[in-house]
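Bug report

Summary: structure tokens for Peptide ABC transporter substrate-binding protein differ between web form and batch submission.
Environment: batch mode, default settings.
Steps: 1) Submit the sequence below via batch. 2) Compare with the web form result.

Sequence submitted:
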Amino acid sequence: MKLKKSWVLLLMLTIMSAVLVACGGGDSTKDDVSTSGKKTVNLMESAEIPSMDSKKGTDGVSFTAQNTVFEGLYYLDKDDQVQPGVAKEDPQINDDQTVYTIKLRDDAKWSDGTPVTANDFVYSWRKIVDPKTAAEYAVIFSGVVKNAAKITAGEMKPEELGVKAIDDTTLEVTLEQPVPYFHSLLTFPTFYPQNEEYVEKQGADYAKDSDHMIYNGPFTMKGWTNTSKSWSYEKNSKYWNKGDIKLDKINLQVIKDPGSAVNLYTTGKLDRATLSGDYAKQKQNDADFTSSLDAFVYFLKFNQKLDGKATIFANENVRKAIATVINKETMVDTVLANGSEPIDGLVPSKFTFNPVTKEDFRKENGDLVTYDKAKAQEYWKKAKQELGQDNITIEFLGDDQEFSKKMAEYIQNELETNLDGLKINIKTVPYKSRLKLDETQQYELQLARWGPDYQDPSTFLGVFETTSSYNRSSYSNPEYDKLLKEAATTLATKPEERWNVLLQAEKILIEQDTAIAPLYQNGVAALQNPKMTGFVTHLFGAPYSYQWIDIK
């Protein structure tokens, strides 16, 4: 379809701006990476870190930072394979697959020199499920670790969680039922340890800045506060595997404008600059251009209830109209241009596969909600008749990341141009503020994303169960809930039947109910210093790992 002239003009101005910024830089060679004799790289982040407390982290920015300075029982290697971290070997599992016994390595230490013990995991996990903590990610324990759901509901004490320290180096975990993905789940930041004595001594000051934390991962953190736009990581001399860490220091700075990122890269002040839109198109033939598809899925989130009252999105035809009217192909090519791909479901491609046939989940379940302007307009006509309204105004929540602003403008244009009588008011807030408004469900329409916590379709589908703490849109379907419960319980040891149930659940969520409007699977385009190697992206868990980075 054709865009409005105003939108085309905006794109042309953006392209002109991109050329001016890119041409204004200096020498693009990276010979002066470090003048101190130490190996140092300069990286960027898209937003400030919302939280360094592993009990409170909920987003990709926080998870990447935590993954850099903390380590769990296991970690993901360069190929997303689970490897022993604080654990010295794979777990011993009983015959019915509900009890995991995990031996810890003797040389795992915190940055203050104290050993990492089994009690550090017991303490951390109990705090997460304790209702007093109000940890958003407590949900990841529910239905997995024994008694977690009852503890978070206030029906049992945290001490009754299915985890105990047999001794300082032996941890025993008891599950509610077999969990096929539990081994990989143990790599996730929410399962990281915390040193009880240190955390309790810090009290409310724990993790408020880098001086009020101790670390057990590859790096320690320096110069960070809760509002920092720059900080650094330094090699952790107490890390058990410090011999494999090549870098001495990583400098991080928050850069929200891709033009600024390109400028800093071309002047040698960044070793990797993330690109989108016109910058990605302009640089895609450069020798140092790189692009990859990750497993984050972006979608429009419809809030069906606000302040206890039904919203316009309680109407199914409204949801279906918006979900089918956006030209996603044009969107990823024009606005993003970073390797992102349109998606017509929730579970991404190249992420998880049929346990028998090995077919990709996304390919097997097909396209569930496709672009069809004529059909969208039919849905919209029915919706207005049902609502008794000719003119409708919707507030669209987005954040201050540059790509988010451009996405919001594109979507606003698509909706207002093609759905008669619709007015979209964009509300732009800081990244952390958007997360808070999502948490309190204070929005109507929102551009949101979800990244997988572990390698299984349920990490996406479980978000929209009625009782999920992340279901912040008041979507509820008993049939959907029933299927996910079956997948987590009676079918846990029946891989093929479980797979088919999850396929069916996604069809209910997207094709039948259109609880959300899937937009695209995220691509990451960047300019990267050819002298830097070992920058690792993950398909699930923390988005990035820095521990294998090296620079010549």
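Above is the batch result. After comparison, the two runs are identical; trailing whitespace caused the diff. Residues 5-23 form the longest helix (19 residues). Residues 158 and 240 are 31 Å apart (CA to CA).
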